[in-house]
Amino acid sequence: MKKRRSIIILVTLLVMATFIFSGCNSENQNFTFSRDIDNNGYWRGVKALNYVELGNYMGMTIPKDRHTVTDEDILSNIDSLLAEHKVKNNITDRAVAYGDTLNIDYIGRVDGIAFEGGSTGGTGTEVTIGVTNYIDDFLEQLVGHIPGETFDIEVTFPEDYGKDELNGKDAVFTITINHIVESVLPELTDDFINATFSETNGWTNIDQMKADLYVQIQNVKISEYIQEYLEANSTVKEIPQVILDFQDNAVIKYYQDYADYYQITLDEFLQQYVNVENQEALLEQYKEDNAKVAKTHLIMQAVAEDANIKATADDVAEYFANYMETSDYTEYENIYGLNYLKLTALVQMVIDHIQSSAILE
Predict the structure, then answer these.
(1) Looking at residue 255, what is its pLDDT?
(2) Based on the number of CB atoms within 10 Å of its own CB, is 163 exposed (0-12), middle (13-18) or buried (19 or more)?
(3) Confidence at residue 80, expressed as pLDDT on a 0 to 100 scale
(4) Which terminal residue of the chain has fewer beta carbons within 10 Å of its beta carbon, N or C?
(5) What is the pLDDT of residue 29?
(6) How many CA atoms lie within 13 A of 298 on its CB side?
(7) How far apart are CA 338 and CA 342, in angstroms?
(8) What domains can be seen in the chain, in order of their start residue?
(9) Is the C-alpha dihedral spanning 220, 223, 228, 231 positive or negative?
(10) What is the pLDDT of residue 323?
(11) Which residues of the chain have pLDDT under 70?
(12) Residue 262, CA distances (Å) to 21, 177, 195, 258 in order
């Protein structure tokens, strides 16, 4: 049977962590995800076994409570899948209530003049009252209004908003409520499963979905245990600076991309949206997490070296086919580079290698 796992814990902890959490030093402007990774998916210039003493990792026994899949596990995954396929209905015949999700347009003005970044440009944006973080009581003032209505609200920017021309200023926003957005969960039926998941997951009915989810969830649990086992039974003498720098560079890149999107500086973005003063403060927040991810990367490479596991382009293709359910990873390669994708595949190859000899209690 084709292996088909929607996502596994190791991908979440390692791959997504480094996709999302990596940071910056003075070389960040030259940072790319594949820069410090060689053609085998190893950290360039690093022999991990010089830094790591591995314990016995083949033939491990996995305790029953660490691989058992419960009904609650399966139902929780089904609920998540249904939530991902909510049907959105546009409501226009009632007043806005607190907690509603709305599609709105707005134009902001200070002293009667529209300011940069203060308009949706007529494209509409979704906000949720009580959840989305806007200044002052911006969203709360929408309660009671009707979709289709256009009206003005008054707000005051915080003194430390981050833009001199807006700090502490009173502003008027002209609001148009386009519609209220109500999301409805689909009904779980064989027809829904077949229509939604037959091509991507090969599921045509509920029973088939549950059986496959069982395997996926068990593999997640086993992968999680293997990672914990490796960390507990390995001695790391030192983490090479190249891996630590990668983590830092990747964090900064993530936030820099957001800052570029909003057309503000990185420090302005961090102050306004992340509530940290600057890049150094941001990296201090991520220091422990980054070190943990770097340590795990190092241990995984040490196992790969010990077992003579190296990743090729074919392994990347197999990884995407099995775990991302696609044969076209061009977009990922354009963003991250082939060698980073090899690192991603290598981590999974190490887990699969260890799991192949593991004994389920």
Answers:
(1) 94
(2) middle
(3) 95
(4) N
(5) 60
(6) 30
(7) 6
(8) 9-84+192-360 (no CATH), 88-184 (3.10.50.40)
(9) negative
(10) 86
(11) 1-29
(12) 20, 23, 38, 6
